[in-house]
Amino acid sequence: MKISIFGLGYVGLTAAACITEQGHTVYGFDVSEAKVAQISAGLSPIKEPGVEEIIGRATKNGLLRVWSAVEDRVSECDMAIVCVGTPSGPDGAHNMSDIAEVSRQIAASIHAKIREAPLTVVYRSTFRPGTIEELIAPIFRSILGEDHLAVELVYNPEFLREAVAVHDYFHPPKIVVGTFDGGPNVRMDELHKGIEAPVFYTRYREAEFTKFVDNSFHALKVAYANEIGRACAHLGISAGAVHEIFVSDTKLNISPCYTRPGGPFGGSCLPKDVRALQYISSDVGAQMHVVDSLIRSNDAHKHFIFQQATKGLAPGSKVLMIGLAFKADSDDLRESPNVDLARKMLQAGFSLTVYDPSLRPGQLVGQNLGYAYSQLPSLSELLKPREFIEDNEFDVVVDANGAAASLNLKAKRLFKMHALA
């Protein structure tokens, strides 16, 4: 393919180099005349292992040519890849001026051109979800008018780490391709041919959000690890030994567990131990701000669940909660988020019924018994047998533990607490 790349910084130049290694011809564009001159001479304006060697070969073989002016060159291409910067503005939002300007230039360059197939315009710059639909697509429509189908827009985030970017290009952790309908794209498949990685086709917004999710999680991991390190230093503990033990657990710690959006955390361990770690860190002066935010974030999520479950309901509406313990096949009610939800339901004036076959109020003991009746004094009256719930109709069923599918229910709406993803 013949591919144009806009923006020859760390992302764009690495992509240009690696794409020529795949045998494609690349036209590069950058506003910096000095950068264009260097690349034309086979030199790299950035320090990135392997890039200059590839650029030298590509320019010598005629696979890489660069300019500062777009003119009509894009009209010759099968694909245009946008890698211009989106720096932070004063309010923290991305500055989208370069994205808008490059989009305008690409649209203008193919205006009134007759193409056998649409130009595939691929965005790799990081920007807010909704940008393609709300900013970029309107630019193309305004310039091309009825000819806007001469382009197909794609969002394809990059996952390159500086200093190992060439390796990461050919060995990415994943390939994410955002299209209008979430369907495959022939040219993107050709671009990624020979690269072994899981491929995810999705709609624009999910693809646009991917880098935010990844980068903020990476930042979270670094901040959390450093908080643990500070606590270890204050307590005379080997942070290295703790880390070795932590990462050895690939069943729960370094794994997909606990990362799927769903219900809040609860039970007898997580809330208690988070609060205890907060106290320890404060006591020794470790200042663990990430850990300090966990309970507040969880409380916010509890309220979000309540709002979602009761959306559109009037006081007096009949609500059925399936599952009261903090997880299925357990009778542990201690700090169960489902107990909190039930209490909110009652306080809001809803007519609440609870079904949890694992609960036997007369068999609750100790702290479990005390917590249950201190939070829900009417627990015994709320709990109903299977026959009762299957013989009655409800305005909404809140499936807190995934058991609703096994029941014969009559309800106007079903809310699955653990299916927010």
Automatic annotation (TrEMBL):
Pathway(s) annotated for this protein in UniProt: Nucleotide-sugar biosynthesis; UDP-alpha-D-glucuronate biosynthesis; UDP-alpha-D-glucuronate from UDP-alpha-D-glucose: step 1/1
Active site: 269 (nucleophile)
GO molecular function: NAD binding; UDP-glucose 6-dehydrogenase activity
Binding site for substrate: 159-162, 211, 258-262, 266, 327
PROSITE patterns: PROKAR_LIPOPROTEIN
Annotated transmembrane regions: none
EC number annotated for this UniProt entry: 1.1.1.22
Binding site for NAD(+): 30, 35, 86, 126, 162, 272, 334
One of the protein's GO biological processes: UDP-glucuronate biosynthetic process
Reactions listed under catalytic activity: UDP-alpha-D-glucose + 2 NAD(+) + H2O = UDP-alpha-D-glucuronate + 2 NADH + 3 H(+)
Pfam families: UDPG_MGDP_dh, UDPG_MGDP_dh_C, UDPG_MGDP_dh_N
Boundaries of every UDP-glucose/GDP-mannose dehydrogenase C-terminal domain copy: 320-417
Domain of life: Bacteria
InterPro entries, A to Z: 6-PGluconate_DH-like_C_sf, NAD(P)-bd_dom_sf, UDP-Glc/GDP-Man, UDP-Glc/GDP-Man_DH_C, UDP-Glc/GDP-Man_DH_C_sf, UDP-Glc/GDP-Man_DH_dimer, UDP-Glc/GDP-Man_DH_N, UDPglc_DH_bac
Keywords attached to this entry: NAD, Oxidoreductase
PANTHER family on file: GDP-MANNOSE 6-DEHYDROGENASE, UDP-GLUCOSE 6-DEHYDROGENASE TUAD
Record family assignment: Belongs to the UDP-glucose/GDP-mannose dehydrogenase family.
Database matches in NCBIfam families: NDP-sugDHase
Protein name according to UniProt: UDP-glucose 6-dehydrogenase
Native organism: Methylocystis parvus
